[in-house]
Design a protein that fits this description.
Shape: globular
Order of helices and strands: EHEEEEHHHHHEEHHHHHHHHH
Strand content: 5-15%
Number of helices: 15
CATH class of the largest domain: Mainly Alpha
Radius of gyration: 19 Å
Number of strands: 7
CATH topology of the largest domain: Endonuclease III, domain 1
Distance between the termini: 28 Å
Number of domains: 3
Structural class: alpha+beta
Helix content: 40-55%
Strand order of the largest sheet: 1-5-4-3-2
Length: about 300
């Protein structure tokens, strides 16, 4: 059992709710008070569960793995973005009359990540120009057919498929699980880049400047501005990643600020300007505003 101190301005319940928004995600299991996930660490595959006490997140290994506890704790910290101090972000929200309610209503929500760059790019491509329900259906079909799973208490837990596996597929094979021809080509192409070590999370992060990271990602076939910024936000934790073209973001701004359904770049720049260093978090909270709490 691993105990991770909970940081200030953190709500495990809010994070669990965000993870469990009635979508059929096959890569983790959320219960009323916990989340379970299967992940590959350096030496073994680990199925773990995260719960909370008053002051700690409790991480318990559920399979026969004996992982490096520091590696597993670091994974959880990155997944829940536990190292960020939201004090400055909340101070900025409190200065905006239309946004101040978020400090209380979404108090403690963290930018829950996708730790692997390959997975985050694949997921954002799967989700391009389709609704989330169908996107999750396509992801489940891909994962169930081409990845590793372990059973625990009658439930299958899956890893995301390895790049080396997807790199060997044909477009025709992905077409059988309802991938468009174009998306199939994109996924296979990206898998080949990762399998051949032509791209990696470490190499991308070494660029440091967000503009340079975005430029490098957009070189990849199938990765446009929205896809690059989604991966930068969810995986690379770039603080100013802004998902231009995102329908959910635009709907939230229309509802809260009365923006047009497709605001101009100038309108977005003006709105996000006060949130330098926190733009990605503001996108997250705007997405959160689209849903009604279920607890």
């Amino acid at each position: 059992m691993i105990k991770i101190p909970k940081p200030p301005l953190f709500s495990f319940r809010e994070c669990l709710w965000f993870l469990n928004r009635n979508y059929d995600d096959c890569l983790y299991e959320v219960t009323d008070d916990a989340v379970r996930k299967l992940i590959p660490l350096e030496k073994e595959i680990v199925l773990f569960e995260v719960k909370e006490t008053a002051n700690y997140l409790i991480v318990e290994v559920l399979n026969n793995a004996n992982p490096d506890e520091i590696q597993l704790a670091d994974y959880v910290k990155e997944w829940f973005d536990l190292k960020s101090d939201l004090t400055d972000f909340y101070s900025l929200l409190q200065k905006e009359n239309d946004l101040v309610y978020m400090v209380k209503e979404y108090h403690g929500l963290r930018l829950i990540g996708i730790n692997e760059l390959f997975e985050s790019l694949c997921w954002s491509i799967i989700g391009q120009q389709i609704n989330l329900t169908f996107a999750y259906k396509c992801k489940r079909a891909l994962v169930e057919k081409y990845s590793y799973s372990e059973n625990y208490q009658g439930k299958k837990h899956y890893l995301f498929p390895k790049a080396a596996v997807l790199a060997k597929l044909t477009v025709a094979e992905l077409r059988t699980i309802q991938f468009s021809r174009q998306k199939a080509e994109y996924i296979i192409g990206i898998a080949q880049l990762f399998a051949d070590n032509k791209i990696s999370k470490t190499a991308i992060l070494s660029l440091k400047e967000e503009s340079a990271i975005a430029k490098e990602l957009i070189k990849i076939r199938g990765v446009g501005e929205w896809t690059a910024n989604y991966a930068m936000m969810k995986c690379l934790k770039c603080p100013n990643a802004l998902t231009y073209g995102d329908v959910g973001l635009y709907n939230a701004l229309h509802a809260i600020k009365g923006f047009p359904k497709r605001p101009s770049r100038e309108q977005l720049a003006d709105f996000f300007a006060p949130f330098e260093g926190w733009k990605a978090y503001l996108v997250l909270y705007l997405w959160r505003s689209l849903a009604i709490p279920k607890y």
